[in-house]
Structures are given as C-alpha cells and as structure tokens.
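The pair is quoted verbatim as follows:
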Amino acid sequence: MKIALLIHRPQARGQELFASFLGNHFLELGHEVVLISLYSGEFSLPFQERQFALDASFLSLKSLKKLSQILREYQPDIIQANGGDTLKFAVLARLIFPFSGKLLFNNGGVVGYYLSSPWQRLFYKFLLARLDGAVSVSEFSKKDLSNWLPARIPQEVIPIGVPEDPEVAMVPQVPYPVFVHIGGFTPEKNHEFLFAVFQDYLKINRQAQLWLIGEGPLRKSVEASYSKKLGPSIRFLGSLPDPWSVIPSHAILLLPSKIEGMPAVIAEALGAEIPIIASPVGGIPEMANGISSCTLISLEEKAAWAKGMDFWVSLSPEERKKLTAPSQAKAKNRFGLKRAAVSFLEFYQRL
C-alpha cells in the first residue's frame, strides 16, 4: 500500500510527531510512505523516508497545485490529513486539481470547540463531506465529529499511539517538588487556572517549581505576566524535541485543559511512570479509565488540585512506584504505537 501523510509543519507537537512515528511503522510493515508538510519548520521530524515541503505561506492556488502534483506523481492509495490546515489543503486541492487515492482525516481533537461562527461550521461541513473516511482519537472526538460529518462516511476510533519502548533518559531527582506542564500556549490549555492552582500549592511547599514546556501564541504574554508574580518558582523551557530528557523522575504532570481529544503527553507520562493530575474533559476520562496514576479533578474543584498535588509529593518512592508501575504496563498495551499502526491499516483496507 502507498500512503501519503499530510502534516501542518515540521514541529515538536502531537500530530506531527505521531504522523512521523506512524509512518515509520508502516515502513517496517512493508508499505510505501511519504510525509508532506504544508509549511516550513526548523524541527527535524524522526521520519525515515522521503519528505516533501510545500513551503506555503498561506492557502493559495499555487500551493494547492503543488500538493496535487506531488500526489499525482506518487499515486498513493491513501492520503491522510493530520491536523492544522491539512484538511483544507487536501480537500480543496483534490477538488481543483484532482488526484487519485482515498482521502482521510485524522481527527486528533474536538472539532466543535473551535467552530465559533456559522460560516466556519458551514465550511467545515463542506470539507468533511468530501472525505472517504475519518479516524477519531477518542469516542468523545468521534461523537463531536459526527455533528459535522455525513453519516455515509466511514468512521473509526483509534486511540493515540506512542512508542512502546521509548528511550526515556530522565534527569536525577532534585531536592524540591517539580510540576510539569507540556503543551502549547493556547486558550484551551488553561494557563490561568494552572498558575492559580500552583500558587495554592506554594502555600503548602514554598520550594516547589512549575516547569512549562511548549510554544504558542500566548507564550510571551503569559511569561511576562507570571514571571513577575512567581519569579524563580516557574521555568519556561520552550519547545523541546524530547521534553522527558530534562524532566526529573519524581515530577508530576499537570494538565488542566478546557478541552482535549486524547493528549499524547498523558500516554508518554504514564510510560515514564510520571503521575498525572488532569481535568476530566474530552477524551481524557477514556485514557484514565483503570489507571491509578492519573488523577482527574474537575476545574470547578480548584481547592482539590493542591490537595491532589500534595498527595503525590507526600508519597515515598516505594509508595509511588506501587501506583505508577501498573499504570505503565497498562499504558504500553493501551497506547502502543504498533497497535495504532495496525488499526489504521485495517481501516484503510476496509475503505
């Protein structure tokens, strides 16, 4: 099978990394794969075969024609759009400059959360109606997508996949609690709430630190505001290709998002035996089902967050291990990348 994976740009974030790892597994299984990015980026993705870059600056006839030319020459059986602007580019390119192959959308989020105007909803329905299939990362994401996707188009739920045996070389423990947030600086990540609960925890332990890993449109304003308020208690580390390499092994992940599809960072944290405290939104409850080291606390229960944080900090290494080790084993089985790759290929073959 010949597969083309379309991504927004080379960057150290969920959809792009997932597409790269997924493509590598397809290659191992004997399939042909190319990776096509819409926009340029400085990050070097870990994809092992051919990569194409449109180097588009915006949606234009020139960029759509270039995408179509690449796909006409490659002649894939499957074209999979993975987040960002990929759905718009793929659908419009096929309409204006037709090419062959089944067109799929990999829905890694919650579409309805971002459709704020009637025009957006109408345009998105127009795009989705021209697909040959759709994959959603969680049952919650699938239910949301069903509001916009015609019932005749096949859908499948395939949970997020992360490498089963990542080389996690975490740094040694430091003599103070470390809370970590990994994610883009965007409104849905809820940084205001994150800083509020961390300030509550500082009343319990003044030595604690909050490390933030990621980039995004709100980073400058967030950093300028909270650096003054919290000083050395917070660290802004930017976007890192391997965030777990700088995180101490006794850290705790905080994820008070307003909405999520199924964040890979939770699966990665489970694999690294890092406890998680998260909001029960989107597909997160599906991920946390039966996982003892993933604590879900409502955003309405702000006071409970500091208590939850102190619970994990207060555990001895042995007590913590009893909770995180079984979760690690379950996560490898539930969120393994090889399992995801096989599920995608089975869905492709049914189209």
The two ends are 13 Å apart (CA to CA). The longest strand covers residues 2-7. The CA atoms of residues 292 and 322 lie 9 Å apart.
